[in-house]
Amino acid sequence: MVLKEANSLDNCDWDMTDALRNDIKTENGLRYGWANTFTPIVYTTNGIFENEDWDSMGDFTKDPNIIDCLQKVAYINLKKIPGGSVAFPGTIQEFYNENREAIHNQIEIINPNIVIFGATMGYIDYDFLENTFGKLEVNKENPHLHIYRNKEKLLLHAHHPNNRAIKHKEYCNFILDAVNDWKLNVRKVEN
Q: Where exactly are the structural domains of the chain?
């Protein structure tokens, strides 16, 4: 998952690793203040790993172990210092431009098969993406999700998980449908 910046009033270095590993989960689900952004991330991530959709996963307030799926994914913020509840595009682009090599290195080292950009793909050099992931077929039929894929990689240009354009369930299922379709096509190519 590639997002813009951490929403925090703390003006210091911010490490999402500790937050995602130790701070986000409670016995009743997600810690207060995290749910708006991380509910769709949790359900989407869990759905990818468990081959389920939003309705079949259950409720993480009753089974907080669903949240543990976050331990299996990489999470990158383009801006490496915290911001507020609203990210400013010019500031995000400036941070990307200043740190492009480090961000590109993060993505290359992780070498993901699936990348979900939460309203961030437009900040990243398309040449870098194509050089890193290969020639990508583009599908822009869904206004809420642009799909870039080949047989090895799937890149999804989605809304931010805490967007107001579509509900969490739709956000999750759009992504899960694209992932399942990609997996199906990969299997067809391999056979």
A: 2-190
